[in-house]
Amino acid sequence: MTEWNGFKGAAKRLDDIDIPRIGHRIGVGEDEIHAFMDVEAAGSGFDSQGRPRILFEPHVFYRNVPAALRQRAVSAGLAYARWGMRPYPKDSYPRLLAAMEIDETAALKSASWGLGQILGENHKMIGYDTPQAMVVAFMEDEENHLAGMVDFLIAAKIDDDLRAHRWAKVAEVYNGPGYRKNNYDGRLSAAFARWRKIKDTPWTPGDVTVTDITVITGPVTTKVWRWHIAGDSFGEGLAARLGGMSADFKRGTPSADIIHRVRAADGVIIGAGSNDVSEDRKSINPEARANLEAIRARAVELNPNVEIIWVLPVIPIARDLVKSIAELHGDDYVAVAAGPDGVHPPAWGPVARDVMAAVQKIEAGAQPTPAPASQPSPTSETAAMTTPTPAPFADLLHTIGSTALNGLMGSNPAMMVAGNLIKAALDKPNVPIEVKDVPAAAAEVVAAIKADPKVAIVATKSAWMSKINWAQAAGLAATVAAIVGLPLSAEQILGVVAGIQTVVATGTWILKTFFTPTVTPASIGK
User: Average pLDDT for residues 296-311, to the nearest whole number?
Assistant: First the structure.
């Protein structure tokens, strides 16, 4: 079929980083995914011609082809009632193309595709509205093959079994009741044992530069909203900065590939459209509107009461398209300023703050309606996908933390600086602390100390005192680094800082008690 271009797309091979990143979505490591691929995957998702590897199944075509066309398919040798009636040819594409002449959709549904040899008739299980959409995605990138395998595990409810290494259950569901004949469970177990001995690919959720991260945590409410981020690099940029949300994203991917990245949630944040634009940025893929509408339709299908927030692309032609879709449906959207490359924002922090403001506005205006229980729960591919702390526990942490800080802040100037920063984070959990704010906070504390007439600055000749200063400086540095550098909520940061200050306080007490001479009135006089 000429419109399929011989089933040749970009045919991008799987990157090493894709394996731990996609495994992270279901809470497994690289070893489980490698083992599953070794046993269940086709070795390569593409054949020697760059087409998705397929196996056309005539017995599946028999059940998928419309009844009025079935005899034609049978007469052509393309369909029969039971598996195993005839041997399969080495190349399935000629039979697939012939079957497509009879009924394209039924033919595409009747072939197993890509790495995981997923039947086209299971396209909805892995997030595609049509088998055509699934095949197009599989033509582009092996990552989509692997993501489809993981989506199938979720939909078939055996992701828990993979996490628990219940290999027999995984094999039974994926391969059918005859799995023991081919020892699928034993092969999975052996492959996992083999991969456990091999060093994993270095990767952290989100795969972004830590120095560029400002974490913004969602509001703590009595009813927790479930938010999901789906998108391209815009999704990645936001996922690293918005805690408490699941996410599924891929850099440089077009809107057609984002449809299956949507998960069931109370609210979905969509960053798509930038990669549908031509290189000269003057035209856009004619299918872009339909694909963007399909992304939204997928979110509504999973939860009819879902709230949608669109993050507008920077490129004008894509921005106008996405904005028109948002306005058509009455969805919220966030505009993004153009950075130096004309594609991304100059910094993600302001975008994340604007998105969080839209989230808070929605949450303040209505209580969420839970997504249908039959749908898979949101899964995670990015940093800090933890559920926000329920209100009573958060309030208790805030009270205990503030009380402890008030006592500790009087112990030394360093603790006062750290304490003020922590209290600011606790009092305003949705306003991130920027690195640039730290010197100003420190300056205010120093000025207050100098203005206090009860404070006397005393010189000391003890060499051990310098060790105390260094200990406190190290504690302050670690505290500030934890506050501005770790993708954690305010409550989580409080726990980290409390641990740091416990170590510093213990060390300081030891130095002062056993190694520091007492300051005398005589030394003050000097």
Answer: 93
